[in-house]
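Case study: ATE1 transferase.
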Amino acid sequence: LKVRVVRSSPPSSQFKATFQESYQVYKRYQMVVHKDPPDKPSISQVRLVPVSFEDPQFKSSFNQSASLFAKYQMSVHKDTPSDCGENEFTRFLCDSPLEAEHDPNGPECGYGSFHQQYWLDGKIIAVGVIDILPYCVSSVYLYYDPDFSFLSLGVYSALR
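Here is what the predicted structure looks like once written out:
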């Protein structure tokens, strides 16, 4: 048995070289030990989208995100349709006082507010609203498709 300590942040060359192999071990572990389904969202199915109506990915996924938000709010929190329309969604989870900032020493995505979208079979099944700041990541809100509650996407998102 050989054990290596490999720097993950910032990622070392060893970390980068062994990432896929490590991820496959993690995925097998999750399926065997924790009984995760094989179709649980993977890293390639998660998109980090800046909260900006100028961003093409944000604009193209806005309607799907807003509809998912309404479905979640009505199912989980028993809101009425008028409580979770597009205006309420925009006010609650899209209007942010943070301004996007790109620091050369910061993360590649920059700082600001983001929607971390979880995609499965071409549709968004969960969105984690997060703020990426210089010294922390703040989870603002998470909503998901109640039809996929068996995937424990809130737990997955928090751990991710």
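For the exam, be able to explain this: The chain has a mean pLDDT of 87.
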